Amino acid sequence: MLSRVANNVYWTSRYLERAENTARIVNVHGNMLLDLPSSLGVGWEPLLAITGSGELFYRHYRNADERNVVKFLLTDTRNPGSILMSLASARENLRSSRDIVPRESWEAVNDCHRFARERVEEGITKRNRYEFTKHIMRVIQQVSGFLDGSMSRDIAYCFVRMGRHMERADMTSRVLDVRAANLLPPADRGDGVSQDPLVNTQWMSVLKSVTAYQMYRQHMRFRVTGPDVLRFLLQNREFPRAFFFCMDQLEHVLKELPHPEAALRRVARLQRRIQSADVHALAERGLHEFIDDLQIGLGELHGDLDALYFRGTPAPETAGD
Fold first, then answer.
1. Is the pLDDT reported for residue 319 higher than 60?
2. How many Å apart are CA 228 and CA 193, to the nearest integer?
3. Cβ-contact 83, 22 below 8 angstroms
4. Contact 87, 109 (CB under 8 A)
5. pLDDT per residue as tens digits for the range 198-254
6. I want to staple 194 with a disulfide (CB 3.0 to 4.6 A). Which of 121, 199, 218, 317 is the partner?
7. Could you give the angle at which helices 126-150 and 3-35 cross, rounded to 10 degrees?
8. How far is residue 203's CA from residue 222's CA, in Å, rounded to a whole number?
9. Is residue 105 packed enough to be buried (19+ CB in 10 Å), middle (13-18) or exposed (0-12)?
């Protein structure tokens, strides 16, 4: 496969995941605020931290109030990570490679982009925001269904999966870094169960931000606690957005591609880092540094993939642990 086509398919998958993830965190955050007293002072700025767009936001806006943050994340063309611009980027990447993906997926992405573009003002209002974000999520999930159900399991499909799991691992780690950093002690009794029901509400929002709440309850079968949320989202081997699951899927994908050795070593390091993590210790201290380490690893892994498959040059050798 030409490196240009591989790059386009990979980034199409990432941009679609990014648009869906952004729609979900806006939706979940708005719902969470309805359950929290205004006296807590939980505003909309955490979403800028999750998306890593705070610096860019403050170049164009003075206050991180609800309307400004929602507009910036949903429809602002000055934000390359907004839903509208992510869909535009996905559409452009897919347009030049649409002969290798099911026709239905191209049509759905095109329609979704048009939907978002035509509702720039309507979609950011409190009245219509929920339906706007839900529509975006539904269509992108349909696209994933078209790709999974109708695309040949060839090299192009490998890059679809690769982009999907890279973006999911990135978002899960970002949500944990920002959300959990504000929720871990001091309210714990020592068993990981918060004495404050409002903290438990916020932990539930962490799970819902990555569509994990229902599966968490199915797997864990007990109350929502900080250490258990960390364990589930970092180490679970069955949930599709858990960090370890994403690394496991990337390992399988890479084994189907030529010359994956450098990238596989990087994935193995991340897997070992996750497996060896003591979630109870992280629930006390060091979570931010731990997530930073994962983020650096993901950045290095992307660099390996870019060198190997998108620029046609071998990835540099990496030193052993």
1. no
2. 10
3. yes
4. yes
5. 777 788 899 999 999 999 999 887 788 888 999 999 999 999 999 999 999 999 999
6. 199
7. 140
8. 13
9. buried
pLDDT at 181 over 80: no
Among residues 152, 122, 230, the alpha carbon closest in space to that of 184 is found at 230
Query: Which residues contact residue 93 at a Cβ distance below 8 angstroms, ignoring those fewer than 6 apart?
Result: 8, 9, 11, 12, 15
Q: CA geometry: angle at 229 spanning 167 and 161, to 5°?
A: 20
Q: Give the 3-state secondary structure of the chain.
A: CCHHHHHHHHHHHHHHHHHHHHHHHHHHHHHHHHHCCHHHCCCCHHHHHHHCCHHHHHHHCCCCCHHHHHHHHHCCCCCCCCHHHHHHHHHHHHHCCHHHCCHHHHHHHHHHHHHHHHCCCHHHCHHHHHHHHHHHHHHHHHHHHHHHHHCCCCHHHHHHHHHHHHHHHHHHHHHHHHHHHCCCCCCECCCCCECCHHHHHHHHHHHHHCCCHHHHHHHHCCCCCHHHHHHHHHHCCCCCCCHHHHHHHHHHHHCCCCCCHHHHHHHHHHHHHHHCCCHHHHCCCCHHHHHHHHHHHHHHHHHHHHHHHHCCCCCCCCCCC
